[in-house]
């Protein structure tokens, strides 16, 4: 069964997440893989974002109603399209030549899709501007931006523990299965990079089509703290746990973070996770689940996925991107090990490659978005209109 194979059931069917049979979904070789069928609807915008708002079933079943919206600058509510299992919150940014419909048509070609994953304490909005730029340049592609478990809008979708790299990866695999799409490109930043490697590890081998995986400023194994001016997630999570769950202003949080030695950039990024509460006193609260995120970061430190890099599934090309100024995250042993994996993969029909993003620290998509765009564009060139 190919990587990210779609369920043979109809998209409009209701599926319980807990009943998902992983063996039949990702590794069965006893039957021919179902042909991926993309979802389309006419649109004249340069790109569109299909935002899926999820609502609980009154009977407690893990079922959500998917509301699709075509947005320009603001979200415009549309009628409910279908029901599906609650998995993760996401946006789908589409190029002008992509069509989206609730009608499944086997005659339509599969829309090339890339999945973008954020790091610890991030959210799918981190990739919004970058994905829209890709959609303008590559109008035949669509870009799935995901809030990982315990982050962003996915926080309201309660997940059973343990909260790990592997469980976060499985969430995304379930989501793409539910949406009946077959990603050709996977991009993960920092923690999201290990999630991408875990997705490849948990899916079936060999693959039905080439898949390019991008691991942005993260290694498969040991996690090393950033240098001065960079983020220190463990210390940051500890500090956030000492703050009130509701605050009166973002300025108070910014001040507290900077006083504790975090850079202004890191502080500004963290407060994007504050949202207004429904209380009349205009207070703000965090959108993430810090307890779950603490477990996820511990798993990030403990998870070792070198086996995926050193035994790359046929059809997978793993790309590592090191930020030039991210000196503390990378050790010489990491670079040497990746170089050995490059040679071994080429002999075995897979692919491993190392890239360096100049003039960038760990926050690659904000430090040097133009350079990152040039490097990642190689994965989309074949489908450019």
From TrEMBL:
SUPFAM superfamilies, per database record: alpha/beta-Hydrolases (SSF53474)
InterPro entries to which the protein is assigned, alphabetical: AB_hydrolase_1 (IPR000073), AB_hydrolase_fold (IPR029058), Serine_prot/Carboxylest_S33 (IPR051601)
Cross-referenced Gene3D superfamilies: alpha/beta hydrolase (3.40.50.1820)
GO molecular function: hydrolase activity
UniProt keyword terms in alphabetical order: Hydrolase
Pfam families: Abhydrolase_6
Domain AB hydrolase-1: 115-373
Recorded family membership: Belongs to the peptidase S33 family.
This protein's name: AB hydrolase-1 domain-containing protein
Lineage of producing organism: Eukaryota, Viridiplantae, Streptophyta, Embryophyta, Tracheophyta
């Amino acid at each position: 069964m190919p990587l990210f194979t779609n369920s043979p059931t109809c998209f409009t069917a209701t599926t319980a997440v807990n009943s998902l049979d992983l063996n039949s979904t990702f590794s069965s070789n006893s039957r021919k893989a179902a042909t991926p069928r993309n979802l389309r609807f006419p649109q004249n915008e340069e790109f569109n974002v299909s935002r899926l708002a999820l609502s609980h079933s009154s009977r407690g079943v893990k079922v959500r109603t998917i509301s699709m919206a075509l947005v320009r600058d603001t979200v415009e509510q549309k009628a409910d399209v279908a029901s599906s299992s609650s998995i993760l919150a996401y946006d789908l940014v589409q190029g002008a030549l992509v069509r989206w419909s609730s009608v499944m048509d086997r005659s339509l070609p599969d829309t090339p899709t890339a999945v973008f994953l954020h790091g610890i304490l991030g959210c799918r909005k981190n990739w919004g501007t970058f994905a829209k730029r890709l959609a303008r340049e590559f109008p035949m592609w669509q870009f799935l931006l995901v809030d990982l478990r315990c982050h962003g809008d996915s926080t309201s979708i309660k997940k059973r523990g343990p909260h790990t790299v592997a469980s976060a990866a499985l969430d995304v695999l379930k989501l793409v299965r539910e949406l009946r799409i077959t990603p050709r490109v996977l991009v993960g930043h920092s923690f999201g990079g290990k999630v991408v490697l875990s997705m490849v590890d948990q899916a079936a081998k060999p693959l039905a089509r080439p898949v390019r995986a991008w691991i942005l400023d993260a290694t498969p194994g040991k996690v090393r703290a950033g240098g001065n001016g960079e983020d220190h997630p463990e210390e940051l999570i500890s500090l956030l746990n000492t703050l009130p769950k509701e605050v009166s202003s973002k300025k108070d949080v910014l001040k507290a973070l900077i006083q504790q030695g975090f850079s202004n950039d890191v502080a500004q990024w963290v407060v994007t996770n504050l949202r207004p509460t429904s209380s009349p006193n205009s207070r703000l609260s965090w959108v993430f689940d810090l307890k779950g995120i603490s477990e996820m970061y511990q798993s990030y430190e403990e998870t070792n996925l070198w086996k995926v890099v050193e035994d790359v599934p046929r059809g997978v090309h793993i790309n590592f991107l090191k930020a030039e100024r991210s000196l503390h995250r990378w050790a010489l042993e990491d670079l040497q090990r990746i170089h050995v994996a490059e040679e071994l993969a080429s002999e075995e029909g897979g692919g491993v490659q190392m890239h360096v993003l100049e003039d960038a620290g760990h926050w690659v998509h904000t430090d040097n978005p133009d350079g990152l765009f040039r490097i990642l564009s190689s994965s989309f060139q074949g489908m450019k209109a």
